[in-house]
Write a structure and sequence with these properties.
Layout lengths: L1 H21 L1 H25 L4 H32 L1 H23 L3 H45 L1 H11 L6 H35 L4 H11 L6 H16 L4 H26 L7 H15 L1 H19 L6 H6 L8 H7 L1
Helix pairs in contact: 2-3, 2-5, 2-7, 3-5, 4-9, 7-8, 7-10, 7-12, 8-9, 9-10, 11-12
Length: 346
Amino acid sequence: MNLDRIYKSLVVTALIITALILMKDIVMPIAFAALFSVVLLPLAKRFEKRTGRIFSITLVLLVAFLAMGLLFWFVVAQLASLAESLPDLEGKFLTLINSFSDQINAWFNIDTHEQMQMMKDALKNFSSYFGSVLVSTSYFAYFFVQVPIYIFLFLLYRERFKDFLLAVWPDSNLKWKDEIQGVVRGYISGLTIVTIIAAVLNSIGLLLLGIEHAIFFGFLSGLLTMIPYVGITTGAALPTLLALVTKDSIWYAVGVVAVHGFVQFLEGNFITPKVTGSKISINALAAILALLVGGKIWGITGMILAVPAVGILKILLNYSPRLKPIVILLEDKHNELTEEEIEKID
């Protein structure tokens, strides 16, 4: 009987993953809209007390668009400043490449011709990847048209979703729904605060080192902290390369790595625990596996959604007597389930 239940669960999981892959263009905007609807719901309710529902939702969306517009303006301004300095950086970058090529020839006995062939192969692979990025970019605008529409409809018809859940589970008090909303709001608001703090700290560190375009790279690194374990490494790579190109000493690049490592240490051990608390509280193994699976299914978008998705899954599993033991594998704190609860599960 247990094997039959496990088999059915695996089949259902495989079907869900397959559906997520095949229908990602449809499901991704809906998933983001659902998360942001939960975050914007309290603000929409507050405006709704003084105005009608449609006007309040429209006003909330306008405020959100204004915030996104300011962020977009900042990114474009920084990119324009970076583009102006590219001609100067090109010569320095070629000098660095030539020096690096000589070192490779001396250490590994790989001549320049072989290195050029390896470089061409790498560029060929990158071009195919860049083509897929351009396809994703063309979808980007379409994505940001869909998401506001879904948010508007989710907020407008929110009672219908509650009535549907009550119709499916008539004896349920839907407490898990309130817990999920609390987790989503706490995670997104906390992640926003953590991102800003990490961005400011990275920018200050890069400014003290005298790295060009420190504010842009600092805030880029802060934004990439939304992808746990992976984002901070990616965010440190570009300013490290810039330090190697523009500075005479390698210690500047070491300093960039040290700054990002220190900020990552503060973020992981002090900032995130204080800001977000135990809203998600999944352990490192569960988070890494979630990132890998999310990245395999939806790419970078899947990696961003992976952690809150596991947090929501943990809440749902906690309300299932048969599946509750899985929570033990996901929890960050092994003692969050009491001994009495574990005995009841067994």
